[in-house]
Amino acid sequence: MAAPATRYAGTRVPRVEDTRLLTGHGTYVDDVVRPGMLHACFVRSPFARARINSIDTSAAVSMPGVHAVLTAADLNGDVHEAWHAVAGKDVADTPRPPLAEGEVKFVGDPIAIVIAENRYLAEDALELIDVDYDPLPAIADFTRAVGHEAVVHEAYPDNVAGGLAGAPPDEEAFAAAAYVADERIYQQTHVPVPIETRGLVVEWVAATQELTLWASTQTPHELRAFAARLLGIPAQGVRVIARDTGGGFGQKVVPMREDMCILLAARKVSAPLKWIEDRRENLMSAGQARHVDGRARMAFDADGAITAVDIDFIQDIGAYPTPYPVLTTAAIGMFFPGPYRVPKSSFNYKTVFTNTSGLAAYRGPWQYETLTREILLDIAARKMGIDPVELRRKNLLRRDEMPFFNPNGMPYDHVAPMETFEQAVKILDHEGFRKEQAEALAQGRYLGLGFSAYIEPTGAATGHLATEGCTIRMEPTGKINVYVNGGSSGNSIETTVVQLTADALGADIADVSTIQGDTAVTPYGAGTQGSRSGPMTAGAVNEAGTILRAQLVAMAAHVLGVPEDDIELANSKATSREDSSKSVRFADLAYRSYYEPQQLAPGMAATLEATARFTSQTMIHWANATHACTCEVDVTTGRVTLTRYIVSEDVGPMINPNIVEGQIAGGTVQGIGGALLENLVYDDEGNPLSTTFVDYLLPTATEVPPIEYGHVEVPSPGVGGYKGCGEGGAIGSTPAVINAINDALAPLGVTVTTLPATPSKIVALIEAAAAD
Questions:
Q1: What gap in Å lies between CA 167 and CA 192, rounded to an integer?
Q2: Mind listing the pLDDT tens digit for each residue in 438-490?
Q3: Aldehyde oxidase/xanthine dehydrogenase a/b hammerhead domain: from which residue to which, for each copy (predicted)?
Q4: What is the pLDDT of residues 399-430, one digit of tens each?
Q5: End-to-end CA distance of the chain
Q6: Which is nearest to 217 in space by CA: 192, 252, 250?
Q7: Range list for CATH 3.30.365.10 in the chain
Q8: Taking Cα atoms as reference points, which of 645, 653, 652 lies closest to residue 626?
Q9: What homologous superfamily is domain 32-136+195-247+252-285 in, according to CATH?
C-alpha cells in the first residue's frame, strides 16, 4: 500500500478552534455549572512563617449559606498517594501537604477551606475564621538561605533540598585562557500568568463511587490518575474533562496543593464543588519560576575558540515546589554548553528552600543556561574587541558536525545551529545595522543589537512521556473523528491532528473533526508539556491512521473489484489508479460497513475504527534557534524601546506554520516581559509585593515590535521529521533583549547582569559607571 500523499501538513490551515474562542463560545472551568454546586475559598496565611496555635471556625460554620469549613485535621489524613508521573512513585520528593499543618511556610499558604453556596458568602466567611498564629523568623532571600536560622522544613536543616555536580572545573584551562568571561548573573522570579487562573469543578457521586472533574489542566489523563491515587479509588471511576484552557505554560502540568484540597473536600460535601483562583491568589500561591543566581565562566583561546565553560548556581524552589526540583534543575547544568563547540564543561548547583511560594514549571524551565551563556558570549566579544556575531561564528556547531556529544554527554543530532544563526544575521542586515548604530551614537542616541542562540530538547521520550495514544473513527456518514488526549491549551493540537489525520487517510479536511481532553473517550497521553505534542501526536495519528487506512483500502478494493495496491485514497474517496472511473466515497464505504456488513468480503471485519499507541524510539528531538533583537535605550530615563525582533528557528518540517509562529511569538513575548518588566518581589520578611497587575507588570503590544520569522527545516528521525516548538520562544528572547541593551550601553561601560532591566536599574548603572 502506497504511503499517503501529504496535502494539509505543512500548510497554513486556519485554526479550527478560533471560531468558538473568538465569538465567546469557549468553555472554561468557570463556565461549568452543576446542579446545587457549592463554591470553595481558601483561608491563606498572612505570615511567611508562623506556628498555627489554633483555628476557630465556629463563627464561619454558623453563618447562613456556609456548608463546611475544613482544616488540615479534616483533609490531610485522607491522602493515600500523592506522587506525580513526571518522575514516578519511587523518586524521593519534597514535602507537599494539602493544607498547612502546624506551621505556615509562606504568605498565601492555604490553611483552611470555606465551602458555601456562592463565592461571595465563602469570602465573607473567611473573615470570621480566627487563626492564632505565633510568627517565626522567615527567610525570603534564597541567596542567604543555606544554613540560615530560619529552617523551612525540619527534614532539611540547612534549607538545601539537594543538588548535583558534574565534572569539577578545569581551573588550569581557565588560568591558561587568553580570555575569560566571568560574571555573576541573577535572574528574578517571574511567572506564567495564564489568562485563566487555576480552577476545578469536582462532582462526587457516592452512590456510584464516580468522580468527575472539569479542570483547567494541561494533562487530563495524569490528573485523572493522580486523583485516583490521592483518594484511593479505582481510576476507572474517575473522569476528567478539560475543554478550553486559557493558557498553562507549565503551571497547569501537575496538580498542586489546592487541587488536592478540592479533590479531598469534594467527597465531604453533598454537592459538586467549584474552586476558581483569583488573580491575587495566582500571583501569590500558584508557584514561582526562574529565580536563579550564579557565577558563570567561559574560557577562550587567542583565536576566540571556547576552551572551557563552568556554571555554579543556586535556584530558589520556595516552600512547596512541584515536583522533583532537584532533578529538573539539573537541566541548567547539562545544557549549559548549548549549541557550541565546547570541549570541557562543568557545573554545580543547589536547590534551596525559602518561605515563598513553591517553584513550578514554566516554559523552558532550564532557560537560565541560555541566559547566562549568551550574556557571557557578548561580554567576551567586547573583551576581545570583536563583534559578538564573529565570536559566535567561530564556535557554533554546523550540521555536518552531527552527531555531536556535548561534554556533559547530551547527544545532539539532526540540528544546524550555524544555519539558523546565519539566517537571522541575513534577515537583520547586520552590517547595515552597525552602520546605523554608529551614526546614531554620533547623534547621542544609543542603539543596540543582541543575539541569542540555543538548542533545546523537545518531545522528551522518557517514562510516561515516551508514549501517546490515538483513536480514529469513521462514523456511518463517512465523517471522521480523531480522539487524542490533547486539550485546548493554546498549542492548537486541535488543528494539527485534523491536518495529520486528513493526510493519513486521504480525507478532505472538512470531513475530519477532533475530540480531546475527555478521559472517558480519549486514549491515555501525557499531555502538553516538554514541547512534546507535535512529534508525539504525529506519531500516534500515524499509528492509528495506518491501521484504518489499510482497512479502507481493503474495503474499497473489494467494492471496486481491483487489487489493493491499485487503490488511491484522496478527497474522501477511494479511486483505482488504473481506471479513475472506478471510485467509491468514504461515505459509501461507511454506510456499507455500518448498515450492510453482509456486503463486505467474507471474513472482512466491519470495523472503521483504529486505536493505537505510539512509542517514540527517539529520546530527544533537538530543536534550535537564533533570536536577534535591536533596541534603543534612552540614557536619561532608562527606557528601552525594542525596534526589531527576528527569530530563525529549526523545528523540523512544520505541520502548520501559523501555529509554529504563534508558539514562537507567545514565548518570545513572555521572555521580553522577563527581561524588562516582570518581577515577583518579596520583602525581607517574605511579604509578596507584586500580587496585582499594578505591581506585576506584563508586556503589551506597545512593548513588542512585529516579530519576523525565518525557518530552517532539519527533519528529526521521528515520524514526519517533526520537532516540538512550544518552549523555544521563551528560552531565547530574554538573553537577546539583555544583550541588545548591553550592546547599546557598551559605550558607557554599562553591563546589565541582574534582571529585570528596568528603567531605574539602567539609570542607576549609568550613573554608577559615570561616577567611576
A1: 33
A2: 999 999 999 999 999 999 999 866 788 999 999 999 999 999 999 999 888 88
A3: 23-137
A4: 999 999 999 999 999 999 999 999 999 999 99
A5: 76
A6: 252
A7: 18-25+462-615, 290-459+620-771
A8: 645
A9: Aldehyde oxidase/xanthine dehydrogenase, a/b hammerhead (3.90.1170.50)
